[in-house]
Request: fold
Amino acid sequence: MQFSKSSVFGLLGILILFSFSPTFIPFAYSQTSSSSASNNNSLAPAAGFADLIEQVSPAVVHVAVSGKVSSSRQNTPEFNFPPGSPFEDFFEQFRNQRPQQDEEDETLRPLGIGSGFIISADGYIVTNNHVVENADEITVTMTDGEEYGAELQGTDSKTDLALLKINARKSLPFVSWGDVDRSRVGDWVIAIGNPFGLGGSATTGIISAIGRDIRSGPYDDYLQVDAAINRGNSGGPLFNLDGDVIGINSAIYSPTGGSVGIGFSIPSNMARNVIEQLQESGTVQRGWLGVQIQPLDKDLAEGFGRADNSGALVNSIVDGSPAEKAKFRPGDIILEFDGKAIEEMRDLPRIVAETHAGDKVSVLIIRDGEERALSVVIDPYPEDDVQLSIAEPDTQSDNPLGAELVALTRQSRTQYRIPTGAQGVLVVSVNSDSLAQENGIRAGDLIQRVGRSSVSRPADVIAAVNQAIKSDQDAVVFLYSRGGTSSFMPFRLK
Reply:
């Protein structure tokens, strides 16, 4: 199973699948709309959806994208004849008379089609980023056939959103954002868009699941719906029965390229925050904590003495980050951020990103088996990649792990490519049929912590493991670095 969108989001949905395996496809651009008047009365499905569709469809637009394609051509074909040929002198004279430079043609060619929806009377339109990326010209067509050239106001590839602007000669119909957090699995939804370029089409279904992670980006939190969504629907809205937009249709799961009843929509609350920033400044600023995290699985939870595996496990801290200033430590388990529960690791990046830079928030953690609250001031997300500070290990040979451990030296740092400043205990060899081998430890791993204690000498590791064995523990938690990435792992002792 793959997720395919153009650029960072893989192939455009208008492309054909390149395998027979089920694939996530971003539908070609698509959007939806609604009138300025909000419909406060939920329309019962028993009465049909015609009134609701009639209300919102004028704000649905068709988005067509064109791009400049350069091609070079020669004025005349090249002829080559062997030396001494009777035609050689003639064609040499012919070559000298023609222009020496190739000519370049640059023409606008269609790149794709999609959908969009108007969110204000003055012509702001929401669509997917994968619909309009690489576009040199964007044309928006209303349901009444009127066309407008659109300007790109801003894009956000991380959430696959884009904002367009058209200058209309009249007040335009538009739709309103809905609160997706009030939606439940089983609620009716309506998708309107431009599937396969057919123009405004409406389909209905229900919300199948909430909070889907389809591994398309760092902030995945999709609605899954069974309303028919096809290539060309990308960028189109998903409506609730009040006529409010609760999602932006962006991808499908399909073994054939057509709808099989598994579509994915960006939730409105996430989209609204991004779109408002694009409307205000053309860019998106996200909050940044500065921790590297990993999931807390059942074995790790047991090693940390936890009854459940909810939360995000911190395994390293970025130098100079808000987390470092707030005294976060590796081994902290983050349970809540600004009052929002962290049920899974992936919840934390999204919630932090939605926090405004400069906000002071409270973070509930578990450290050494006890709950405590840390106060942290959030920074804006750095534009450049930030290197994480990682600690490294040392070694010794005769120990219960069945691995040779050594202290870090200049030579071992060079040999095993250990970063300067990293601390810990280095594994240089692992015996067969040993505890270390059974737990997946490899030569070159850098052991940084055992249980709740940091280690800097082989004796530290040995003592901590022996103490865990003496205490009849089933496992002890290791923090180790491999290939520059730190991770916690449960080291099984039995």
Remarks:
- The chain has three domains: 1-68+106-282, 287-380, 403-492.
- The domain at 287-380 is CATH 2.30.42.10 (Pdz3 Domain).
